[in-house]
Amino acid sequence: MPYILDHHYLPLEKYHNTFHLYEDEVRHYMLTDLLELHFIECSKFRQLPFNINDPLHRWLRFMEKHITNEQLEELMRMDDTIREAEERLAYLASDAETRRRYALREKALHDKASLLKDARDEGIKEGIERGYKQGIEQGMEQGIEKMTYEMAINMLKEGLDYKLIRRLTGLDDKQLSQLQQTRRDADNGDCNS
């Protein structure tokens, strides 16, 4: 399976690297010889001297965007498969229906990429808004809870009856007992200092 890339991808010097599937612990055991991954990094290839006798060099030169007519003629004279590929490409380019289909496909790919980007951006925006709203709600709940506890502590300090404090704050007897104990512990801690 070839991957032809127009950028540096692997931290290796070679422009063409081949990988196979090996067992992780028994490194000499290859799962299959039917699957290879070829990484061809054109950016590294362009830094090398061109070798017209190397078939891969010829194909990579053929695929270059800025190949000159002279270079193309030389490749086609030397390699029949490149000549056949160029003839087929020229035929396809001359067919109006093929060009129309190609343009429609390019537009569809562009539209799909735009839709995916818009959906991702909308999802991010919605996530931020939802998180912001939840944060505000959670902060308000925590603030109300803290205020309720502080109010109950002040009522306990004033010696008000649990029944009245329960009615005014909505706290139950267990919560009021815990607050009373916390207040006593804090008072004892202040006295012992």
Please tell me about this protein's structure.
The longest helix has 62 residues, at 96-157. The protein is mainly alpha-helical. The model has no long low-confidence stretch (mean pLDDT 86). The protein has helices at 42-45, 55-63, 69-78, 80-94, 96-157, 162-169, 173-192, and strands spanning 2-5, 16-19, 37-41. The chain has a 3-stranded mixed β-sheet. 66% of the residues lie in helices and 7% in strands.
Order of helices and strands: EEEHHHHHHH
User: Which residues form runs of ≥5 with pLDDT under 50?
Assistant: none
> Treating each run of at least 4 consecutive H or I residues as one helix, how many helices?
7
Query: What Rg is obtained from the alpha carbons, in whole angstroms?
Result: 37 Å
Instruction: State the helical fraction.
Output: 55-70%
What sort of overall outline do the alpha carbons produce when their principal axes are compared?
A: elongated
Record the strand order, biggest sheet.
1-3-2
* Oligomer kind: single chain
Q: How large a portion of the residues is in β-strands, by DSSP E?
A: 5-15%
Number of strands: 3
Largest sheet: 3 strands, mixed
Distance between the termini: 76 Å
Mean pLDDT: 86
What structural class do the secondary elements suggest? mainly alpha
